[in-house]
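Supplementary Methods. Inverse-folding protocol.

Structures were first reduced to a discrete structure-token string of length 478. This string, shown here, constituted the complete conditioning input.
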């Protein structure tokens, strides 16, 4: 990664980190273009947590400037979408978290065929490099890869769009937490810590009070589950008499001198004061538990949610087919809606994971060669195969560097999702490139990052796709 600080000459924010200044600089012409524009604007975002956060940021920034705009959120930007958008009325198009991977299509169908102005604020691997983008007069392409940063981990589209919004108006600094929600959704927080440019955004968020950061117990359900459930669900490290044992977990909390309920309701870990959490930690250490492994940086949003859990809810809105609800939750702080989405999503994930569990002996559905494969057929929704693939990769279900999930999609196609483990990526594996290459050979459309990539391919090419991915991963990890 290029860590060189470029001199910007700006002295606007003396005490703040300097690396993001490079991105601010490339955002400036885009902010000016938007400010000057008095016609209609179309905002187009992607449907995951990062895309929804980026859309919410751009939405609020455009609204504050009194712009006339409409927005749509897409699962992916396929060629047919680009062709359709080329025909729409708006003469300024702002793409967020989508568009870099398809910038060649934007060039072909929009920039060469129409007079529309296009701004892309994204972090996916760009199809057009910095020079090719720069040669297109009506395109402003904001992408960290063009500055030598890895968009897979250094900054997300929400981060890029936040910096653009900040260039539009300093008032938009109150949106910085959304940049971190997006980055978290794209798994840019590793072992509890943000990396690269995200660290600068983290500092801004913590200093402004938009996010509280402290060290604490990193347990699942910190803000959404009763404390004893968070403790009993934890099995790594195994907590003797607590893991898988609800009454044991309750006993652990009580013996630490911490109340399990408040006003008759079970408390979550997030409900505990810092002092109570310390008491619980001390009690766990006294019992000989390896607590160090459970301690991580915890980021809590002003609305009380731990950032990973909130980001999951925003992501869930897209997966459940209601990405606009995610924008609403972010912009209107609609926590009742957030709760509702969370419960619905939990039920859908459980049933998708049950499919994996129920078919684990069925070699036609679940098998392992160089890669682990889950064929969800028509029983796992195409919107859930990505999540199933992520969970199956992270819980070690397969002993493989890559897990691939497939599920039937509309129009005789299948949705493909792939995830790689950290070591394989560190050794140079890049799923985004591999998937892109196979798509070129097998009439698919896809792309992504080194750790995660997806595609849509014709149903008839499914087996060949799996075999090609298998052999390419095998070659690259040999
Ligand atoms: O769909 P899935 O969750 O598997 O996608 C993994 C990653 O690949 C995401 O970052 C997504 O944006 C990207 N992707 C892409 N083009 C596609 C499908 C997925 O860039 N056609």
């Amino acid at each position: 990664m290029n860590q060189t600080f470029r001199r910007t000459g700006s002295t606007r924010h003396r005490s703040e980190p300097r690396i993001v200044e490079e991105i601010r600089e490339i955002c400036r012409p885009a902010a000016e273009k938007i400010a000057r524009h008095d016609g209609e604007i179309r905002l187009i975002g992607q449907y995951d947590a990062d895309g929804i956060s980026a859309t919410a940021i751009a939405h609020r920034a455009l609204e504050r400037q009194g712009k006339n705009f409409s927005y749509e959120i897409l699962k992916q930007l396929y060629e047919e979408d680009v062709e359709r958008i080329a025909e729409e009325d708006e003469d300024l198009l702002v793409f967020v978290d989508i568009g870099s991977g398809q910038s060649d299509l934007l060039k072909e169908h929009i920039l060469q065929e129409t007079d529309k102005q296009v701004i892309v604020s994204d972090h996916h691997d760009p199809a057009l490099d910095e020079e090719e983008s720069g040669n297109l007069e009506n395109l402003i392409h904001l992408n960290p890869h063009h500055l030598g940063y890895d968009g897979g981990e250094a900054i997300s589209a929400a981060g890029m769009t936040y910096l653009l919004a900040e260039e539009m108006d300093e008032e938009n600094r109150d949106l910085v937490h959304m940049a971190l929600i997006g980055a978290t959704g794209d798994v840019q927080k590793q072992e509890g810590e943000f990396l690269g440019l995200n660290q600068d955004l983290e500092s801004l968020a913590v200093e402004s009070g938009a996010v509280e950061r402290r060290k604490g117990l990193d347990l699942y359900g910190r803000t959404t589950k009763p404390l004893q459930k968070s403790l009993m669900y934890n099995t790594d490290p195994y907590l003797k008499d607590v893991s898988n044992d609800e009454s044991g977990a309750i006993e652990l909390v009580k013996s630490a001198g911490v109340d399990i309920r408040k006003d008759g309701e079970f408390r979550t870990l997030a409900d505990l004061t810092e002092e109570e959490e310390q008491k619980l930690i001390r009690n766990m250490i006294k019992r000989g538990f390896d607590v160090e492994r459970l301690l991580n940086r915890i980021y809590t949003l002003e609305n009380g949610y731990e950032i990973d859990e909130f980001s999951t809810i925003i992501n869930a809105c897209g997966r459940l087919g209601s990405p606009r609800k995610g924008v609403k939750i972010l912009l209107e702080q609609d926590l009742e809606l957030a709760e509702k989405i969370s419960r619905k999503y939990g039920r859908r994930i459980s049933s998708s994971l049950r499919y994996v569990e129920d078919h684990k002996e069925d070699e036609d559905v679940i098998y392992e060669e160089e890669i682990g494969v889950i064929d969800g057929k028509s029983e796992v929704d195409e919107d859930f195969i990505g999540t199933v693939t992520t969970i199956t990769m992270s819980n070690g279900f397969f002993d493989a560097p890559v897990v691939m999930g497939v599920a039937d999609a509309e129009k005789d196609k299948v949705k493909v999702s792939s995830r790689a483990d950290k070591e394989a990526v560190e050794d140079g594996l890049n799923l985004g490139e591999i998937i892109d290459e196979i798509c070129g050979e097998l009439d698919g459309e896809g792309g992504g990052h080194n750790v995660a990539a997806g595609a849509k391919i014709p149903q008839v090419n499914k087996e060949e796709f799996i075999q090609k991915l298998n052999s390419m991963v095998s070659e690259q990890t040999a």
